[in-house]
Fold this protein.
Amino acid sequence: MTTIEKEMNHVAQYLFIQKERYGEKLQYRIDYDPVLANKTIPKIILQPIVENAIYHGLREKEGHGLLEISCGYTDGGSVMFVVKDDGVGFDPDVLKRGGGTEHETSLPKLGGVGINNVDDRLKLYFGQAYGVALQSKPGEGTTVMIVIP
């Protein structure tokens, strides 16, 4: 376990390294509610999501890409992390339908070990109501939401 502040610092260090690799192609912003800084969460829930956003979304995009990471309370009092990229996106029809809107689904089972691991761990810790959800549209990017109590 770690704190939200430490998890955000960990992902900031990871992004610093990736920025050295990708240069101006990668732009990023990290923002979170400081009230949440000391909330305890499972370790390494953001880095696999951020890695996927860079590797599958931004790396393939022509020109600059923006990755935004935020964390705050939902209206229902849960904590939500959002990892949003403006990369190439993907067709949500390839995902297993989870009852959301046309572009909102449950976690895909596409062989992505990292993202599935995060989802499985969060469900183990907090129950089936929590975990990872995705929204994507080709050419417009992908948004990953992680919800915990």
In short: The helical segments are 4-22, 47-58, 113-126.
